[in-house]
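Hi R.,

As promised, here are both runs. First protein below:
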Amino acid sequence: MQELELKYGCNPNQKPSRVYMEDGSDLPIIVLNGRPGYINLLDALNGFQLVKELKIATGLPAATSFKHVSPAGAAVGQPLSDVEKKIYWVADDAELSPLACAYARARGADRMSSFGDFISLSDVCDVATAMLIKPEVSDGVIAPGYDDEALKILSAKKKGNYCVLQIDENYTPAPVERKQVYGVTFEQGRNELKIDDALFSNIVTKNKEITEQARIDMAIAMITLKYTQSNSVCYVKDGQAIGIGAGQQSRIHCTRLAGSKADNWFLRQSPQVLGLQFVDSIGRADRDNAIDLYIGEEYMDVLGDDVWQKTFKVRPEVFTREAKRAWLDKMTDVTLGSDAFFPFGDNVERAHKSGVKYIAQPGGSVRDDNVIETADKYDMVMCFTGIRLFHH
């Protein structure tokens, strides 16, 4: 297939729309089910690059959940704890392959943002992964292949309209890429930077002890940032991104946004949230929305006298700011990556509030001394990669 006609571009008024290979060769993707849209394909192709690199860097199956050309979550296939199964809505008796674990983590990190996502998988999609995808609200999935039964499961989603794409995992794009803006053609070399342990060797803090898990998490953070709209910051813990801040003009705003998402991920594991008693009729999306409101500042939207019965069997106690802070203080050993240097120590201060122990950032600010001093204050380990990872 050399060309694929689309319904429309980014918006319904943008017609005609298609994808094709300029050199006349075949597209590296095959549509197995459904009909992809313009944004679907942007998410699919960016997402597959991300998971392919994660697999190469860690040796583990990888998954990402993309929304509007940035990842909402990304993870590798490390086992799920019982608490993680609960907050990701994974049944205790569910079959969990390494790829399924990667998908559950990628989808579960920020379930609000992942609603209606496009999924990318590094490996052939097995039945275990397809069964986790089956009940979720999602636009489609891309993978290098599918088990026969997994393809049947996925093709039945959305009344048979779920988008299932297969990509040639051996496809190698041209070394120069182009795009047009306002009729002007832009050209640049592809970002083929290899992210591995060598990138994290320049440790600039007093504490220089990096665990093996922290090295994996640093790789996940930086590869995720490589495909996230800039400015971007990523918090990672135990093999999965737990907070991604994308497209912010200010670095500190990006750090705060990603940090608040990481905080929400950890708050969902608190006894107050795990103990919520939802009414039997409530669906996954409504539960996710209710939890997001409950742990936020708008908690009375679900706890008010005239509304709580719609969501809960028993009215929960208010999750106070003090109680939330006490729980968040238990979050430790988080890794943070930044796609450009920290210009001020305030980014490190904010990171500390979300349990960050390890930081990977390019360095090169005129205030590097202040940033390093702030990291030393909290006994953090910070490396300067010397590499910027802007993506647009």
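And here is the second one, sequence first, then its structure tokens:
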Amino acid sequence: MRNFVLLALAQVLIFSQIHLFGYATAAIFTIFLLKLPRHTTKNELMIWGFLFGLVTDMFCNTPGIHSAAATAMAFFRNPVLSAFTHKGLPEDFIPGVKSMKWGGYMIYAVICISIFYILLFALELFSISYLSSLFISAISSTLLTMLFVTVTEFFTPKQ
């Protein structure tokens, strides 16, 4: 719960205000969804995603697009995680570099965060005439968020 509050505050007060080159915005609350234990049910993931999105939507004055995108990311998180881990993992398995190695964790994170941003910008632009802008925004925002995911992994204590 403490991590939820800290990440939500950091998101709405700091990271939602940063727009690099008019395209890239970091959604650091996605780190919370990525790091939830494997045994977290799809419904719990979707509730957490919706809550993060709702808080961001309320403070950033966006009409539900963060909620929709974060809920979708949460919906697809477990299948994406299963693709990069083996079946015999303990229930308390927490995704991370220490448990999945750099390559597996980074691919897992890029896929989940890309789902979030593609849906977010598709809902924001709501037109296929801005397709190039959608992809530039999604790719640059994914890369910026991955920078923060990588930094977070360096400072995460060993489990």
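A quick note on the second one: Residues 2-155 form one domain. Let me know what you think.

Best,
J.
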